[in-house]
Structures are given as C-alpha cells and as structure tokens.
Amino acid sequence: MTDTPRAIPDLSKDMVNAMAASAAAAAEAARRINDELLEFARLRFENDAGVAEAMVKAESLADIVALQRDFLVSTFESYAVETSKLRKMAMDMTKDISAAEPVSKRAA
Questions:
Q1: pTM of the complete model
Q2: Which of 5, 31, 47, 106 has the fewest CB atoms nearer than 10 Å to its CB?
C-alpha cells in the first residue's frame, strides 16, 4: 500500500477487480455444485420410482423385503458417494476462490 492519496483510486479499483474475480469463481463453483445436486436428485427419483414399481409388481412378501433391503443398501451407498463428491467440490470451490486474484493480496 502506498502513502499518497492519488494511489487510493487505483487501490480501490484493484480491490474491486479482485473481489469481482473471487465472486465470479464462487458463482461458477456454486453452479457446478447446483448441477451436481440436481443430477443426483434426478437419478435418485428415477431409482426410487423403479424400486416402488418393482415392489408393486412383487409376487411375495419375501420379494418385497429383498427389494427394500437392496434399496436401503444402495441408497445409503449412493448418498455416501454423493457426500464425498460434494465435500471435494466444496474444497475445490475454496481453492478456486482463493486462486482468483485473492482480495487478501490486495489488502496487504
């Protein structure tokens, strides 16, 4: 930072540019996370509807119990995988925002 008042507009411009770059990186990362969530919800809906249809067509209680067991196991696994994906995407989002001309460099 400089001591001359003339440098203040340049510093403000640099700070605004840095904030804009960080905001753009955050918006793009948020869009990717949103796309991932929408795709996961779509796949879950399709899978859940398929299981419900199979249960309706089941010929015995044992078949229904087996379908439900398989459904619960696969649902748990898919949520665990999705949680890991989202955690990684959030960490990547933080890196992307920090790498996009960080505001902290401008304040120093």
A1: 0.73
A2: 5
Distance from C-alpha of 53 to C-alpha of 46, rounded to nearest angstrom: 11
Structure tokens at 65: 């119990």
Going by C-beta distance under 8 Å and a sequence separation of 6 or more, which residues neighbour residue 26? 93, 96, 97
Distance separating alpha carbons of residues 11 and 45, to the nearest angstrom: 51
Tens of each residue's pLDDT in the chain, 108 residues: 455 556 566 667 777 888 888 888 889 999 999 999 999 999 999 999 999 999 999 999 999 999 999 999 999 999 999 999 999 999 999 888 877 666 556 555
Q: Tokens 């770059």 appear where?
A: 21
Give every CB contact of residue 49 below 8 A, 6+ residues apart in sequence.
Answer: none
What DSSP letter does each residue of 2-45 carry, written as one string? -S-TTHHHHHHHHHHHHHHHHHHHHHHHHHHHHHHHHHHHHHHH
